Amino acid sequence: MPLINGINDATLDELLQNAIDHHNDEEYDEASLLYKKILSVSPNHVDALKLLGKLSYDRNELQKAIDLLEQSHHLSPKEPTTLFYLGEAYDAAEDIEKAIGAYKALIQVDPNSIEGTYNLAIIYYQLNESSEATKYFQSILDQNPNHEDSWNYLGLIHHENDDNREAERCFNCALQANQDC
Known about the structure:
Elements: E1 3-4, E2 7-8, H1 9-24, H2 28-41, H3 46-58, H4 62-75, H5 80-92, H6 96-109, H7 114-126, H8 130-143, H9 148-160, H10 164-175
Antiparallel strand pairs: 1-2
Helix pairs in contact: 1-2, 2-3, 3-4, 3-5, 4-5, 5-6, 5-7, 6-7, 7-8, 8-9, 9-10
């Protein structure tokens, strides 16, 4: 096992797992200390950067989150979780163009990312870009016909566009989300 500043990979893995456990338990100070300890030994540790970025997002430290997630993304540009967290952080920071870019990059890397596709669809809905929102909500339904929220949003879009028959069909599909529609 290679040693980095006297710490081997197994120890880094153990520190990372402990940090994740603290993070999941919302013990943010403890998790942060462990992520930073990993980064002090291995500054380009993609997972520690990504997870410290997520922790910063969880603490509403948006610029710090974005900076850390961008570092992680630079080191591992096709890592889907980093792209998802970047989309969330940019959206929360109201940098909508970058949020859209992050979610689109995520969908290129992982076309089955329902959460990323959903977040992108919501952004387009909030921007009143009905055709783009519809495209992404429909993409979700192509993967998961029981996605109730996508049916509801499609219903809203059709209603807002005075297509009440299609709106009613979508709302009915939302009500029957666990059945074929």
